[in-house]
Amino acid sequence: MANDSHQRAAEFHERAAHAHRVAAASHGTGDHKTAYESSHEAMEHATKAYQASQEAHRDSETSASKGK
Q1: Cα(2)–Cα(20) distance, integer angstroms
Q2: Residue 17 pLDDT greater than 90, yes or no
Q3: Alpha carbon distances (Å) from 59 to 9, 17, 26, 44, 45
Q4: C-beta of residue 5 within 8 angstroms of C-beta of residue 59
């Protein structure tokens, strides 16, 4: 269960990173609308990644306390 939570968090982090790269590339070509949209998408993914990371951390703590 904890590994699933960590995997989910990692996937959101990857999505956020990808959206940041797309935003940077779009901004570099002068396509500011696409850059803005990609930055917004990156922020949404980063927020989900943070939430998933918190959940994974709680799952890990729960698993660790059960093992004691």
Answers
A1: 27
A2: yes
A3: 12, 24, 38, 23, 21
A4: yes
3-state secondary structure the chain: CHHHHHHHHHHHHHHHHHHHHHHHHHHHCCCHHHHHHHHHHHHHHHHHHHHHHHHHHHHHHHHHHHCC
24-52 pLDDT tens trace:
998 889 888 888 999 999 999 999 999 99
Determine the Cα–Cα distance for residues 38 and 24; give it in Å rounded to an integer: 9
pLDDT at res. 59: 87
- Domain residue spans of the chain: 2-66
Q: What is the DSSP letter of 67?
A: T
Q: What is the pLDDT of residue 48?
A: 92
